[in-house]
Amino acid sequence: MTGLTLKDIRKSYGSVDVLHGIDLEIKEGEFVVFVGPSGCGKSTLLRMIAGLENITGGDMYIDGQLVNDVPPSKRGIAMVFQSYALYPHMTVYDNMAFGMKIAGESKQEIDRRVRAAADSLQLGKYLDRLPKALSGGQRQRVAIGRAICRNPKVFLFDEPLSNLDAALRVATRIEIARLSEQMAGTTMIYVTHDQVEAMTLADRIVVLSAGNIEQVGAPLELYERPANLFVAKFIGSPAMNVIPSTITEAGNTTTVTLTGGKSVTLDIATAASEKGKTASFGVRPEDLRVAGAGDDYLFEGEVSIVEALGEVTLLYIEGLVPGEPIIVKLPGIYDIKKGQKMHFSADRSKLHLFDAEGRTYRK
Ligand SMILES: Nc1ncnc2c1ncn2[C@@H]1O[C@H](COP(=O)(O)OP(=O)(O)OP(=O)(O)O)[C@@H](O)[C@H]1O
User: Fold this and answer.
1) Whose CA is nearest to atom 5 of ligand 1?
2) CATH of the domain at 318
3) Is 360 a domain residue?
């Protein structure tokens, strides 16, 4: 039963600094997901936890033990890669048994663990096949099964679903969620680009950008209370609308004037010294609704694009910042035409405000 502690972890390749001092506590049994834009350093951090990359600075502890110089095979971790990395000439059974054979486990113990892992991943009927006779999803399940057989204390996943098509991604994602419930005491760390994977699998998400942690929190905490503009725009799809604005009244509530629009009062407290400062006003596409005639509204504009997806309708509204339409996401199907003029409103509690450095004013 194992937790991890990362203290001021740094990574440089020559003169290029990739990670700038990562501090993170991961509790035993926790499912933690690293997300962030391409190149932010999430795979590097995962590979450092695995021991596949050396640590330039800082200390890393697994289960209370300093592991900076401990080789991968002695860390009690198992890693599942995007590329499956199966041995092509070995059957599914032998692929799953290989690590245990090397470790000198008994035949009976190997058989017991392989069959238990195959059962939990519904691979029982494929044990005699070679990897080439399996679908991508099945191969990835074999790679996961092989990792389970090693009885890891920490399970690492590096974008395990990114080679799969959409339907298989969903099925395998659900498989991983089930697995993490079955292996409740096993710590899992998972790197992905995919927001749905992050939101559905994680106990906590770590948002990284350019080698730094932007925010760590439960999925809905990040969605509802982003600490800064980066997280606000990164979590949620389509991204949060952000409108440049100026603070005209500060106090227990804050009034801002939106660029190209009207004044809006938010239930967010700001210090008197904030009055007159520029700020970024944010509202998520799904938090906007059509304002009825005579209702108070947040902004008005003209529909430039309608995307009817069946389940939702996306509207692109021009009228505030030229060339930067506001996106509105309405549930279901609407008969709305391009060129139509419309008014939109939102609950005050759903409005966000960030200072000139991008930090949230909502505490
Ligand atoms: N061996 C290396 N030598 C030099 N730079 C490297 C090396 N490996 C990674 N980098 C750089 O480190 C940064 C972080 O890479 P990393 O693969 O961790 O990013 P990532 O967030 O996982 O990206 P992606 O989502 O695209 O996989 C990138 O800018 C990358 O170019």
Assistant:
1) 13
2) 2.40.50.140
3) no
Q: List phi, psi (to 5°) of 147.
A: -65, -40
Structural domain includes residue 180 = yes
Domain contains 16: yes
Ligand 1 surroundings by CB, under 6 angstroms = 13, 16, 18, 36, 38-44, 193
Do residues 198 and 246 share a domain?
no
State the complex-level ipTM: 0.96
Query: Is residue 201 domain-resident?
Result: yes
> Residue 262: what pLDDT?
86
Domain count, the chain: 2
pLDDT in tens, 39-57: 999 999 999 999 999 999 9
Closest-CA residue, ligand 1 atom 2, reads 13
Which of 38, 44, 45, 158 for mutating ligand 1's site (highest number of atoms within 8 Å of CB)?
44
User: Which domain covers residue 206, as residue numbers?
Assistant: 4-234
Residue nearest to atom 8 of ligand 1 (CA): 44
The C-alpha atoms of residue 194 and residue 183 are separated, in whole angstroms, by: 23
> How far away, in angstroms, is 159 Cα from ligand 1 center?
14
List pLDDT tens digits, range 248-267: 999 999 999 999 878 999 99
- At 349, is the pLDDT very low, low, confident or very high (cuts 50, 70, 90)? very high
- pTM as predicted: 0.92
Residue owning the nearest CA to atom 9 of ligand 1: 44
| Alpha-carbon dihedral angle through residues 110, 116, 120, 122, given to the nearest 10 degrees | 80
**Which 3-state string (H, E, C) describes 122-159?**
CCHHHCCCCHHHCCHHHHHHHHHHHHHHCCCCEEEEEC
